[in-house]
Write the structure tokens for this entry.
Amino acid sequence: MSNDSNNKRADTNTKTTAPYQTDLSTRIFTGVVSLSPKFLLLLLILPVLGGLLSVLLPAFSWVPALEKTTLSLQGFNDLWQTPGLTQMVALSIATGLISTLFAFVMTLMILAAFF
């Protein structure tokens, strides 16, 4: 009887499958998983590219709704001719830096109060 049980153990130990012998669902899962990083990257980049294109085309005077279908730099020329442009840029930079500093100080105060 002990000889019979040893044979059964030997049979179960020798019935291992080779790593290259997989069933269909495992191959499909592996294929999907290997493509998922590329799909996610594409899913995240496409809206960004669409938004970038939607900003750059009107910046170069391509607005088909207004019947402007030629590319030009007229918008940039108009921008550089705007009076007070340097003050506008300085105000934007100062506002951004001051609001960042204010948010940082508020965060430190909250952390100091609770920790």
In short: The radius of gyration is 33 Å.
